[in-house]
Amino acid sequence: MAIQVLINVLLAALWMMLSDTYTFGAFVFGYLFGILFVLVALPLLPGKHLYLRPVWKSLILAVIFMKELILANIDVIRIVIQKEIHNKPAFFAYPTDLDKDWEISLLSQLITLTPGTIVVAISDDKKTLYIHSIDFSDIDSEVSAIKDSFEKAIKEVSIR
Fold first, then answer.
1. Are 114 and 68 in contact, with CB atoms under 8 Å apart?
2. Do residues 111 and 131 lie in contact, with contact meaning Cβ atoms separated by under 8 Å?
3. Which phi and psi angles does 92 have, rounded to 5°?
4. How far apart are CA 132 and CA 91, in angstroms?
5. Which long-range contacts (CB under 8 A, 24 or more apart) does 79-84 make?
6. What percent of the chain has pLDDT over 70?
7. Which listed residue, 41, 50, 57, 153, has the most CB atoms within 10 A of its CB?
């Protein structure tokens, strides 16, 4: 993937030199031209995908996190402004399918940064996260919510 970035930047610089225009617009045009060149030359370069794919998937993960962050803040505000406490805090075990340490760490951080939940421990085999939730409905809905949002997006980012 790094060679793709290097080729793209070098083509952008080459375009600026050939056109004798050293502006940001010329660099952007050369960079876009370089992306097209890298796409055409992709079978000859290392990596199965264009290097922009993980960047795009990371942006999607950031959008998913922002959506979950807003929804969790609304839920916590709803709990705080109630006259009587009706929430049911609980600990639960979350089985994860992620393998790499950085993926598990990122998932743990995203869960912890979301208001109302916190990862309190990770099992020694790194297959189970122990999570505390401020308002626990049932384990199946909690696990499926995390799997369908954060874990799925993290898997997409790590695909090469």
1. yes
2. yes
3. -150, 155
4. 4
5. 79/116, 79/134, 79/135
6. 99
7. 153
pLDDT-based confidence at residue 86 (cuts at 50, 70, 90): confident
Contact 114, 135 (CB under 8 A): no
Give the single-character DSSP code of 43.
Answer: G
For 13-64, write each residue's pLDDT tens digit.
999 999 898 899 999 999 998 889 888 888 887 777 777 888 889 999 999 9
CA distance 118 to 109: 9
Specify the length of the chain in residues.
Answer: 160
Nearby residues of 11 by Cβ (< 8 Å), 6 or more positions away: 30, 31, 33, 34, 37
User: What single letter denotes the amino acid at residue 135?
Assistant: D
